[in-house]
Amino acid sequence: MQALTFSQYGGPEVLSWRTVPDPVPGSGEVRVLTRAIGMNFADCYRRQGRYPQKGEAPWIAGYEAAGEVEAVGPGVTGIMVGDRVAFADSAFAHAQRVVVPVAKLIPLPDDISFEVAAAVLLQGLTAQYLVRDSHAIKAGDSVLVHAAAGGVGLLLVQMASLLGAEVLGIVSRASKVQTVLDAGARQVVLFGEDWSQAARDFSSQVDPAGLVLSEGVDVVYDSVGATLQKSLESARTGGHVVFFGMAGGDPVPVDPRYLMDTSKSLTGGDLWNVLRTREDRLQRAGELFHWVRQGLLKVHIAARVPLADGAEAHRLLESRSTTGKVLLIP
């Protein structure tokens, strides 16, 4: 089979389209013929060496795809060759074929396409745990979303709005503003503007005597990393920041004294700590598919790039020029 590989860390130019052996499913595993593959910032981090790889090169990145079961390993029951499936947290997805543990497989309903599944699962499950687990959004909450036009960002804006929150989105360029407003945000600001002040103004209230009753949002969702301190400053006294990505670089250390003095809280988030069992995956994916089916969640596909041209997909994602999800097509 063919796969998108890398043998050293670096920029997109280190990626190579090469022939590798077909993987063989072991006990409790199946082999999936991929039809659509989700591209994520974590794939760039792995290529860059920020997430060191196990084993020997060449390495294959990717954790998210949809396709058809092509072969079934020993001991597998309830899954047959030809079944439509997807997964969001199984390695080596940037290939024409990938072996996946049955526990990580998500059966696809007939009305959910391969492309929609690959575009919504990892980022949709991420946005879902952010609004359900990291900070349980409730009606009336004020929310700041970084990279609001990105794959996770657009879904996060929609989910927070669906749950009754008032959303302020940050985007990298003016061409993305309307898309985020259409997704449910009440206001959108550009990253180059004073977005921290905009966040403080967004939810401030003034009593009849002219005193400011609150300043800053209830929760900030920060996937940029390098912006973490300003995100903390954008939250109200007693507010909350959820840090779940490093698209703009590693954050500076946070002084615990600052958190104490402002009564603010900082939470880390990682999808792998949420998808603990097959039941978790099926229940959470089921809710996502329901929202898509009902038209409550719009899946935006920014680009479809041939897997053989995967380096271009990496460049596209890192340029921050896209709105929505980048897919790799085998």
Produce the secondary structure layout.
Layout: E1 2-6, E2 15-19, E3 29-38, H1 41-48, E4 59-60, E5 65-72, E6 84-87, E7 97-101, E8 106-107, H2 114-134, E9 142-145, H3 151-162, E10 166-171, H4 177-182, E11 187-190, H5 195-202, E12 205-206, E13 212-214, E14 217-222, H6 228-234, E15 235-243, H7 256-262, E16 265-268, H8 278-293, E17 301-306, H9 310-318, E18 325-329
Parallel strand pairs: 9-10, 9-14, 10-11, 14-15, 15-16, 17-18
Antiparallel strand pairs: 1-2, 1-4, 3-5, 3-7, 3-18, 5-6, 6-8, 12-13
What report would you give on this structure?
The chain folds into two domains: 2-121 and 272-329, Medium-chain alcohol dehydrogenases, catalytic domain (Quinone Oxidoreductase, Chain A, domain 1), CATH 3.90.180.10; 139-268, NAD(P)-binding Rossmann-like Domain (Rossmann fold), CATH 3.40.50. The model has no long low-confidence stretch (mean pLDDT 94). With 330 residues, it is an alpha/beta fold. The protein contains nine helices and 18 strands. The strands form four sheets. Strands 3, 5, 6, 7, 8, 17 and 18 form a seven-stranded mixed β-sheet that branches. A six-stranded parallel β-sheet has the order 11-10-9-14-15-16, with helices on both faces. The protein has helices spanning 41-48, 114-134, 151-162, 177-182, 195-202, 228-234, 256-262, 278-293, 310-318, and strands at 2-6, 15-19, 29-38, 59-60, 65-72, 84-87, 97-101, 106-107, 142-145, 166-171, 187-190, 205-206, 212-214, 217-222, 235-243, 265-268, 301-306, 325-329. InterPro entries: ADH-like_C, ADH-like_N, ER, GroES-like_sf, NAD(P)-bd_dom_sf, QOR-like, Quin_OxRdtase/zeta-crystal_CS. GO terms for molecular function: mRNA 3'-UTR AU-rich region binding; NADPH binding; quinone reductase (NADPH) activity; zinc ion binding.
